[in-house]
Amino acid sequence: MATNETMIGRAEVDDVDAILAISNTDVDAVVHAVRSNSDAIFTWDYERTRQGLAKLYEKAKTSQWNANDLPWDTEVDQLAVIAANRTQNAGIFEGHDVRGTPVESWGEDEWTQHAVEAQNWTLSQFMHGEQGALICTAQIVETVPWIDAKYYAATQVMDEARHVEVFAKYLNEKLSGHYPINAHLKMLLDEIIADNRWDMTYLGMQIMIEGLALASFGFMHQMTTEPLLKQLLRYVMSDEARHVAFGVISLQEFYEQLTAAEIRERQEFAFEAAVRMRDRFLQQEVWEKMGVDPKEMVPVVLNAPDRPLFQALLFSKIVPNCKKLGLLDAADGWLRHRFEELQVIQFEDWADTSEEYTALDEVAKDRAPA
Ligand SMILES: [Fe+2]
Ligand SMILES: [Fe+2]
Hints:
mainly alpha, 16 helices
């Protein structure tokens, strides 16, 4: 039976020293190689038998958009946007007591600078995560044995190229600095790519990483007052909803024939991925950049009164989808208990994403003419 040590490399989930011991050491590298151990699978069965995937593929073909059509001439004054966001979102996530913490003496300037860094960091991680999705989905084209899934995955590869493109362009042209990939995100991506079971690529990417991305883009879409970013996120979200649906529809069929032991392995992988993503959201690099010791600040962040709600919102797509796939309640609710410990279970009864893509796509159709 797997233990925390074997799954996540530490006994206590909230062991701050162990979390921070994982840091990115090759920040100046230009390339990063990961060995993939999977076979590329040809199928000679061209019969279109999977209606759910066929429908998704048709939708994807008619929902393509061009990054050049976004209003890139929009002026973005990052400081003005931060001030406007603060006014719009006043009252949400406020009321922290920072007495006795390293940020106790921070005034307006420091908090503004922190907001700038946090935005640069967040968009950088989105960009790196999108490249992870590009690579993982290209891998699925090779490894999945179903023709309908290969067709659909091919459209997702194009979507992900566009997502990397728009986040990179927004960072370059509208923000004020890049961050290298966060070590926890990198570790998770490496593991997903190295796993030779094609369904694990789906679970790691389409269910876990993209589920979190969808919630996180939605959250930022609501919180930002900057119109270009808002529109960009809206377009990306309409694609992401299809990607998560692709994961749910494919894995539903595949999991039906797995043994209890095999399902348990998937539960453990979902837990590990959840911990890695929770850890990445602690933004350790932002604190370092601000001259604050993350060892002192991360426990403050972990124990902030609004943390459980924020975390549960980030997982509000993942948890219902895990439930739909049977992962939450298999093995006497093993994953349910782990998600409870991580404080992410709250929205388990929210809609799963297998159908949500149609609703999201309709809204995206209102897009302004280029
Ligand atoms: Fe994406
Ligand atoms: Fe995606």
